[in-house]
Write a structure and sequence with these properties.
The structure is a single chain. It contains 14 helices and 65 strands. It is an alpha+beta fold. A 5-stranded antiparallel β-sheet has the order 1-34-33-32-31. A 4-stranded antiparallel β-sheet has the order 2-29-28-27. Strands 3-4-5-6 form a 4-stranded antiparallel β-sheet, with no helix packed on it. Helix 7 runs antiparallel to helix 8, helix 7 packs antiparallel against helix 9 and helix 12 packs across helix 13. The N and C termini lie far apart (143 Å).
């Protein structure tokens, strides 16, 4: 038992099933957010798909999934689109759905008209159209709805109805234990009670070239002609008989699609040969196919027991996914001598081009980097070195380091350059066999991407070092030195390649072309445009056998070819994004198998593409829903058929739009513009929803366009956000009138107010003028009084001075009188007596000091009295000295007045300071002047 298990594991490690299948798009329950089971499928004229789902009617328009619960909240078992109506059958209920102006579906019951005639617990499993009749089939009866007369007829059967069918010319149904019936003139008619119809469940009936093909559940296919059955033998009859078939479908190209309960689906050719067998481990979400449907694009939709799948049968792309992990990530491939060789991270595998099983080439376990064909020899660049592949055998001819790639030596058929982990080395063909000759001395950097020119110049691209150039000698033995380019610089996932005898280098900053004369890299605008607008993912460049240059970006695969009329490059784009191709960045690989068929490696296998069959449906882009809402309120759908008019507070608007494209490898992108709010189109993105919040009042036109659809067919929707009632034109007129009235009365009130205020101001100004006049008069009076006081003071001073002068005169006269008396002996001399008498008459008899004191006090506001009161010890002489000092007389001027010397005056001043008890720092004159 252990040996058997080991042999199974051993065989699995060397063989890998390799059926190339059409792309499968998976929609899980978590994506469409409805029930897990889908019982029937249909499609309308706008390409929207409808599914009879456990949770209700499920709609898919290519972008959004919408669930419409059945009217009685039961499972919908059947669905059929007929013209503009979507007919559905559920538990004890059938009817149709129609579009509203908001593009939503609204249900109208037909069974309610005959509610009392419906059998309890009856469910409607099938719907057909025949001319203007709609047939609803339950397991008990058939209801025929006349869409013209709006009437319903019921066809009953005592035994249960297994299934009903409609062909070009008739309506059939199978009854348990009774056979096959046809409805003719509204009545059942037995067509055949052949044992096949009695004991075998009929899955479907097909009308093919005027023949009726019967597909039974366990017996296979039969032709039914003139009431007789004849077996159609197929190569898989035994397989089909044990597969528990549940559904089948005749495809538009004549092939048959068969859905099973536990073994996935089969696609048979029109000759009933197996074409594809697709199961869960080959890409299906589930092995139970409850329903099958072919849409307008010839995609096969599968309603599974748990999910929905879409198989792009007409796609030019065929994919192989290695779910086992045996094959691994594909890094290189080549078609050599009728075999397809695949180099992966697990080793080298091969199969015949039309074969279904990959075989492992022994000895190549590990990373394969490249495959290269020269003449009739296949070289394999491997992590272990270099192998030569001879059909199923691998010979290691170089093992010193890993080998990246190979390049021919110009004008030498016996030499081959190979890029290794540690530089570049030479392979030589000698005696019909290739061998390692030597490593190029002087350059030891990893040479993942390199090219050699006709004059033996080698250019190497190193992802972390940049671009190098070195010159080989004629013997290909060494290089003296090498040059490192500063521009262009190094770059992640960079690449270097020769195309049309020119060397190109690509990294995130663009694609640069080498000028042969100057040996300078200059940016190529056409090729660099591929990486603009954040499209860069990898700089990998590939040249195929038909001289096409391939490049890879975020949203496209690009290839360039020379124009037939010039040497200008012509660009072609395949709108397959990197996220869908699942390729290893920096290691993208594409191989021309034959003609226009190419193989592209991925991280879990590969896919093939036929460029001639590559086409894109030119669907019309449509706006599917428009919803508005107030702030923090629920969304409300609006009509998409007429211009919108929304209230000012309903200015949050959401637009939904889509292109009904169901191809796995086509990722539709959209641009939108809201005229009246935006000036430029938005960036391309895959979102199918645009929202605008708090739009101001105004007129708007929303425009949206999509890639891969008719770019001239721009979907438009015009709408107006109304002004609030308080900003409408009528409101503005009322505001103007009201404002005018208010302004008038305000003006009138202000005028009255200002008139009153003016009068009051005039009165106040007059009063102020009078007060000012009185103030001025008072001030003038004060000035005059001060002037009078000054005049009086001046007169008093003059009087004091005059008095002092008179005193001085009297003193002088007294002295003269005494002198005359003393100098004249004869006092009786008449002349002398006369003079003395005259002097005596002129001498003032009043006390001169008292006169001076009174005059001085009057002149100086009782100065002497104040001084006497302050210093009571002062004598008359002291007061006299104070008076002289008050007059600001110097000692020299005072001395004659006191008839003493200047020295005596100083002594008197000193004594006066003592009497007044003045500080040493305080001046006597300043103190006296302070009184």
């Amino acid at each position: 038992m252990k040996v058997r298990f080991f042999l199974i594991l051993f065989s699995l490690s060397f063989f890998c099933s390799a059926q190339e299948l059409p792309p499968i798009v998976k929609y899980s329950q978590s994506v469409y957010k409805a029930g897990n089971q889908n019982w029937m499928i249909s499609q309308d004229q706008k390409q929207s798909l409808f599914f009879a789902n456990n949770d209700g009617l499920l709609e898919f328009n290519g972008a959004n999934w919408i669930v419409y619960p059945s009217p009685n909240e039961t499972i919908i078992r059947s669905v059929k689109v007929i013209e503009d109506k979507v007919y559905t059958g559920a538990y004890m209920e059938f009817g149709f759905w129609t579009r509203t102006v908001t593009n939503e579906l609204k249900y109208q019951s037909l069974s309610s008209k005959i509610k009392d005639k419906i059998i309890d617990d009856e469910q409607f499993w099938n719907i057909h159209q025949y001319e203007h009749w709609i047939i609803f089939q339950s397991l008990n009866r058939i209801y025929v709805y006349d869409s013209k007369a709006k009437s319903i007829e019921i066809i009953t059967q005592d035994d249960g109805i297994i299934r009903s069918f409609v062909t070009d010319k008739a309506i059939y149904y199978q009854v348990i234990n009774k056979g096959l019936f046809e409805i003719e003139n509204g009545k059942p008619k037995l067509v055949s009670n052949d044992p096949l119809f009695l004991s075998n469940k009929i899955i479907n009936l097909f009308s093919v070239k005027s023949e009726l093909i019967v597909h039974s559940q366990s017996k296979g296919f039969f032709k039914f002609l003139d009431g007789k059955l004849s077996k159609i033998t197929t190569s898989i009859d035994n397989i089909l008989s044990s597969s528990n078939i549940y559904s089948s479908l005749l495809l538009s190209n004549g092939d048959y699609a068969i859905g099973t309960v536990s073994n996935g689906i089969y696609i048979l050719t029109s000759e009933t040969n197996i074409k594809y067998h697709i199961t869960q481990n080959k890409g299906l979400s589930n092995n139970t196919a409850l329903s099958l449907f072919e849409d307008n694009d010839k995609n096969l939709w599968i309603g599974l027991d748990n999910g929905i799948n879409c198989i792009n049968l007409q796609s030019p792309i065929r994919s192989f996914s290695d779910d086992t992990g045996i094959l691994g990530t594909v890094y290189s491939s080549v078609l050599f001598q009728g075999n397809l060789y695949i180099g992966t991270n697990q080793g080298l595998f091969f199969k015949s081009l039309k074969g279904d099983t990959f075989k492992f080439i022994e000895g190549t376990k590990g990373q394969v980097w490249s495959l290269f064909v020269l003449d009739d020899t296949l070289f394999c660049g491997h992590d272990s070195g270099t192998f030569i592949i001879d059909e199923t055998n691998a010979e290691l001819i170089f093992y010193n380091s890993g080998t990246w790639k190979f390049e021919k030596v110009p004008n030498r058929n016996d030499l081959l350059l190979q890029g290794n982990y540690f530089g570049v080395s030479v392979l030589e063909k000698s005696n019909g066999k290739w061998r390692f000759r030597n490593k190029i001395k002087g350059f030891d950097y990893s040479s993942k991407h390199f090219e050699v020119t006709n004059n033996l110049e080698v250019y190497v691209s190193h992802e972390y070092k940049g671009v190098f150039r070195f010159q080989l000698d004629n013997q290909l033995l060494e290089t003296k030195t090498f040059f490192t380019y500063e521009s262009p610089s190094k770059g992640k996932n960079s690449c270097l390649i020769k195309y049309n005898e020119s060397i190109y280098y690509a990294y995130k900053e663009g694609v640069f072309k080498l000028e042969e004369s100057s040996k300078i890299f200059k940016k190529d605008k056409l090729l660099s445009a591929v990486f603009e607008k954040d499209e860069y993912t990898s700089g990998k460049l590939i040249v195929d056998e038909s001289n096409k240059l391939w490049m890879f970006s975020k949203n496209y695969i690009h290839y360039f070819s020379l124009s037939k009329l010039s040497n200008q490059l012509k660009e072609n784009k395949i709108p397959i994004p990197a996220a869908l191709t699942n390729s290893m960045l920096g290691y993208e690989n594409i191989t021309q198998l034959y003609n226009t068929n190419y193989l592209i490696g991925t991280t879990d296998g590969y896919y093939t593409i036929n460029l001639n069959d590559l086409s894109f449906n030119n669907y019309s882009l449509s706006i599917t829903n428009i919803a508005i809402n107030k702030l923090n309120d629920k969304l409300k759908s609006c009509s998409i058929l007429e211009k919108g008019s929304f209230k000012h507070d309903e200015n949050n608007i959401i637009f939904n739009y889509c292109v009904p494209e169901f191809n796995k490898y086509i990722n539709a992108e959209y641009q939108y513009l809201l005229e009246g709010f935006q000036n430029d189109w938005s960036e391309w993105c895959s979102k199918t929803t645009s929202s605008f919040k708090n739009l101001p009042p105004g007129n708007y036109t929303f425009k949206v366009r999509a890639k891969n659809s008719n770019t001239e067919n721009i979907a438009k929707y015009s709408f107006t956000v109304l002004k609030p009632w308080y900003t409408t034109n009528l409101a503005l007129v009322l505001y103007f009138l009201l404002l005018s009235i208010i302004i008038f009365y305000i003006h009138k009130a202000y005028k009255h107010y200002y008139n009153k205020k003016e009068e009051k101001l005039i009165e106040e100004n007059n009063l102020l003028l009078e007060i000012a006049a009185l103030e001025n008069a008072k001030e003038l009076m004060k000035i005059k009084n001060e002037q009078l006081i000054q005049d009086v003071d001046s007169k008093n001073r003059e009087l004091a001075i005059s008095t002092m002068s008179l005193i001085k005169k009297d003193e002088l006269l007294s002295i003269i009188k005494e002198d005359l008396k003393n100098t004249t002996d004869d006092v009786t001399n008449k002349n002398v007596k006369s003079v003395i008498s005259t002097i005596t008459k002129n001498i003032n008899k009043v006390d001169s000091w008292s006169v001076f004191k009174d005059a001085f006090d009057k002149a100086d506001n009782d100065f002497l009295k104040k001084v006497k009161q302050t210093h009571s010890t002062l004598t008359s002489n002291d007061l006299r000295l104070c008076a002289y000092l008050r007059l600001n007389l110097s000692s020299k001027e005072i001395a004659p007045l006191l008839n003493i010397s200047v020295r005596s005056v100083e002594i008197k001043r000193y004594r006066l300071r003592k009497k007044m008890d003045l500080e040493h720092e305080q001046g006597l004159v300043e103190y006296i002047l302070s009184f």
